[in-house]
Amino acid sequence: TQLLEQSPQFLSIQEGENLTVYCNSSSVFSSLQWYRQEPGEGPVLLVTVVTGGEVKKLKRLTFQFGDARKDSSLHITAAQPGDTGLYLCAGESSASKIIFGSGTRLSIRP
Amino acid sequence: GAGVSQSPSNKVTEKGKDVELRCDPISGHTALYWYRQSLGQGLEFLIYFQGNSAPDKSGLPSDRFSAERTGGSVSTLTIQRTQQEDSAVYLCASSYIQGNEQFFGPGTRLTVL
């Protein structure tokens, strides 16, 4: 069974600080997606990474796919209250099945 | 439509009753997914459809859960004889083809008393 573990489970930091959340697995994924979910809404896709070692930037967010395509990280620079939410990673297996991690709940204090 | 819609947005039911949850995917999307999310947790995969067929039913928690999709569009998730542990947000998503970006609906919050 393919599993995706996210850490930390919860993170509360001050506005302006930097943070990194992690998504790890013992399995290889053909691609990995990061979603953000706000209360009362469904998750919204932020980015998809496909190539091992790939780095993508989305304004203050930097996403990296591990060289072996088993793990990924999301780094946020100068966090803002609007970054608050549940961050979910999701991996696509070779069978084109999407598996979601358990999420990191991020809270940014003004 | 512009996005994935789900109805009802909230459902409160008594233990033992049956419930039906509806999902209207984005027009033209062939793949449709159902997930369950407990409070603040990640998504638990339930079932996905490619067209009207469900090649992967492995996530359905018990035989009280069933789903169908008709006309390659609307899907309903039915939970029979609901239990308190069925209380959760049920999310539906669709994608152009299986494996592509999934677009999520707002979910149906189910509360079983």
Core attributes:
heterodimer, A: 110 residues, mainly beta, Immunoglobulin-like, five-stranded antiparallel sheet, B: 113 residues, seven-stranded mixed sheet, 11 strands, 0% helix
Structure in words:
- The complex is a heterodimer of chains A (110) and B (113).
- By secondary structure, chain A is mainly beta.
- Chain A is built from no helices and 11 strands.
- Chain A has a single domain, classed as Sandwich (Immunoglobulin-like), CATH 2.60.40.10.
- Chain A has strands spanning 5-7, 10-14, 19-24, 31-37, 44-49, 55-58, 61-65, 71-76, 85-92, 98-100, 104-109.
- In chain A, strands 2, 4, 5, 9, 10 and 11 form a 6-stranded mixed sheet that branches. In chain A, strands 1-3-8-7-6 form a 5-stranded antiparallel sheet, with no helix packed on it.
- Chain B is mostly beta strands and 113 residues long.
- Chain B has a single domain, classed as Immunoglobulin-like.
- In chain B, 0% of the residues lie in helices and 50% in strands.
- Chain B has strands at 5-7, 10-13, 19-24, 31-37, 44-50, 53-56, 65-69, 75-79, 88-95, 103-104, 108-112.
- In chain B, the strands form 2 sheets. In chain B, strands 2, 4, 5, 6, 9, 10 and 11 form a 7-stranded mixed sheet that branches. In chain B, strands 1-3-8-7 form a 4-stranded antiparallel sheet, with no helix packed on it.
- In chain B, strand 5 (44-50) and strand 6 form a beta hairpin.
- Chain B is globular and about 35 Å long.
- The mean pLDDT of chain B is 92.
- The chains are: A mainly beta (110), B mainly beta (113).
- The interface between A and B is medium-sized, with 22 and 20 residues.
Topology overview:
The complex is a heterodimer of chains A (110) and B (113).
Chain A: E1 5-7, E2 10-14, E3 19-24, E4 31-37, E5 44-49, E6 55-58, E7 61-65, E8 71-76, E9 85-92, E10 98-100, E11 104-109
Parallel strand pairs in A: 2-11
Antiparallel strand pairs in A: 1-3, 3-8, 4-5, 4-9, 6-7, 7-8, 9-10, 9-11
Chain B: E1 5-7, E2 10-13, E3 19-24, E4 31-37, E5 44-50, E6 53-56, E7 65-69, E8 75-79, E9 88-95, E10 103-104, E11 108-112
Parallel strand pairs in B: 2-11
Antiparallel strand pairs in B: 1-3, 3-8, 4-5, 4-9, 5-6, 7-8, 9-10, 9-11
